[in-house]
């Protein structure tokens, strides 16, 4: 994903910063304030609240 695009994207709910997280199986944009993970599918961020995954606060720091 283009670094310039990542710098411009913000959380659609709180307008806060997002962290780009890559794993072997997925890519997500994380909003720590709202504890949501927005998926990145085929290099395109899906910035819809109903598509976001809720992050468990106990496992967020791991």
UniProtKB/TrEMBL annotation:
Signal peptide: none annotated. It holds the Pfam family Trm112p. InterPro entries: Trm112-like. Gene3D superfamilies: 2.20.25.10. PANTHER family: PROTEIN PREY, MITOCHONDRIAL, ZGC:162634. Belongs to the UPF0434 family. This is UPF0434 protein SNE35_19935. It comes from Roseateles agri.
């Amino acid at each position: 994903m283009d670094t310039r695009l990542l710098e411009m994207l913000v959380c659609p709910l709180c307008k806060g910063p997002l962290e780009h997280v890559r794993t072997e199986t997925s890519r997500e944009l994380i909003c720590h304030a709202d504890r949501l993970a927005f998926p990145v599918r085929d290099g395109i961020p899906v910035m819809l609240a109903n598509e976001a995954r809720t992050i468990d606060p106990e496992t967020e720091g791991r």
